[in-house]
Write a structure and sequence with these properties.
The protein has a single domain (3-448), classed as Amidase signature (AS) enzymes, CATH 3.90.1300. The strands form five sheets. It has an eight-stranded mixed beta sheet, with helices on both faces. It is built from twelve helices and 17 strands. The chain has helices at residues 8-16, 22-40, 48-63, 106-113, 156-163, 180-186, 227-237, 278-293, 308-326, 337-358, 397-405, 434-448; strands at 43-44, 75-79, 117-122, 134-135, 139-140, 142-143, 146-150, 169-174, 189-192, 219-224, 264-267, 297-300, 363-367, 383-385, 388-390, 409-416, 422-428. The radius of gyration is 21 Å and the shape is globular.
């Protein structure tokens, strides 16, 4: 059993069946971190002793015959944004360099209660505010497929660590494709659930105990090397929590086993006016052809009559208003409250248009981002896509559309481009349909080949 590239599901089963111990699983991942993290710089704030103590307790509990959780003894990492008791939570921001949370966020608490062994944090963009993971505290994360390329952001450390076998899974946050974009760049899977599905309490360091400012568009979701693991982690972390009153009391269902012949899939190689690399657009069309050959009902999408560029701008404006409201002191000229309600009304129109689109379709297949992993650069630098300079700020556009609408979306690896870099494609579904969307992704997985192990790991 190749422990460091085994799924969380298989590791949990092996530990439960006493084929391996929790200590063995942990030591294998720590050795992989020691071997590769210096070059990649994905894992930060490594807690060797704390993790080893937790793994020993997991083995002792099993020896006593205690009931085992679905992650019993499985090691994992968490993006450096979730508050975890006794561990630094910095979001790469120097004023938070020494902040240690007093309690676990609901997501962290649920993963630990399921038996998971938290090893370390993973690197991020400073304040989670870029599509490359680089910050003054921990430096830059590189892509395991090519160290001269970015792993993406802001969950770049998570995606790179999973790709390189340093952890079986992680949990990121996604306000503008921050889970899906790095998942695509590193060739792993990443799920952005429906808005208000997973608790946002403790999802950002909060030394001052301030009011929760981010309430819209941001979601927490898993990254892993298989759809099966996405489903496992999603079921653990999703659902109502008393600390986040915005959560919807919608049941978290098991991932269904679906037949491709019963599915109606719409596809689009890109959105109107959105740049996309030819290899990515071709990957969408090729997968659509394979799905049709497998018996699915496949159609090129007739997208909702929306100005998607305007939706991106409106999404950015909403984020700006939330950030303004979260500032310790109000600006000299605060945004009028009426603007906030106008912005929400505009967003409602987009949400309803996409809801109507999905009434007759099981999923939309489209790109995650306009390019595969690009060379490290300063934020704002133009990105070359098929020989043409494109705006840096359009990098997450295909994914950010569904932060604005709130619909669930996931990134699935789908082969390599002409530079040998992973291509990630996006599946989007109806609101509150994560389990079905995951079932669709699992049905498609044999056609895409799933996760590929990068050379040298």
């Amino acid at each position: 059993m190749d422990l460091v590239f085994s799924s969380a599901t298989d590791l949990a089963a092996a530990i439960a069946n006493r084929k391996i111990s929790a200590i063995e699983a942990l030591d294998a991942h720590l050795a992989q971190i020691d071997a590769h993290n210096e070059a990649i710089n994905a894992v930060i704030s490594l807690d060797r002793e704390g993790a080893r103590e937790s793994a020993k307790k997991a083995d002792a509990a099993q020896a006593r015959g205690e009931a085992l959780g679905p992650l019993h003894g499985v090691p994992f990492t968490l993006k450096d944004t979730h508050e975890a008791a006794g561990m630094k939570t910095t979001v790469g921001f120097p004023p938070f360099a020494d902040y240690v949370a007093r309690q676990d966020s609901p997501v962290v608490a649920r993963l630990k209660a399921a038996g998971g062994v938290l090893m370390a944090r993973t690197n991020v963009a400073i304040m989670l505010s870029d599509w490359q993971s680089n910050n003054p505290l921990f430096g830059r994360t590189s892509n395991p497929w090519n160290l001269q390329r970015t792993a993406g952001g802001s969950s770049g450390g998570a995606a790179a660590a999973i790709c390189a076998g340093m952890t079986p899974f992680d949990v990121g946050n996604d306000m503008q494709a921050s889970i899906r974009l790095p998942a695509a760049f590193c060739g792993v899977h990443g799920l952005k659930p429906t808005e208000h599905r997973v608790s946002l309490a403790g999802a950002f360091p909060d030394p001052g105990g301030t009011a929760r400012g981010v309430r819209l568009m941001s979601c927490l979701g898993p990254l892993a090397r298989s759809v099966q693991d996405l489903s496992l982690i999603y079921r653990i972390i999703a659902g109502p929590d008393w600390r986040d009153t915005d959560l919807a009391p919608v049941p978290v269902e098991d991932m269904p086993k679906l037949d491709l012949k019963a599915l109606r899939i719409a596809f689009v190689p890109s959105f109107p006016g959105f740049p996309v690399a030819g290899d990515i657009g071709a990957a969408v069309e090729n997968l659509a052809t394979q799905l049709r050959s497998a018996g699915a009902i496949v159609e090129e999408a007739k997208l909702p009559k929306l100005d998607l560029h305007d939706d991106l701008e409106q999404g950015g404006a909403l984020i700006g208003m939330m950030m303004e409201a979260a500032r310790p002191e109000p600006p000299e000229k605060p945004t009028p409250v009426s603007r906030w309600f106008e912005a929400l009304a505009r967003r409602d129109r987009s949400i309803l248009a996409w809801d109507q689109f999905f009434e007759s379709r099981d999923a939309l297949l489209c790109p995650v981002a306009m390019t595969t992993a690009f060379p490290h650069c300063d934020p704002g630098t133009s990105i070359v896509v098929d020989g043409r300079q494109q705006s840096y700020w359009m990098l997450p556009a295909h994914g950010a559309i569904f932060n604005y609408s709130g619909h669930p979306a996931l990134s699935i690896p789908c082969g390599l481009d002409s530079d040998g870099l992973p291509i990630g494609l996006q599946l989007v579904g109806k609101r509150w349909s994560e389990s079905r969307l995951l079932g669709i992704a699992r049905a498609i997985e044999p056609l895409t080949g799933g996760f590929r192990r990068p050379p040298g790991y």
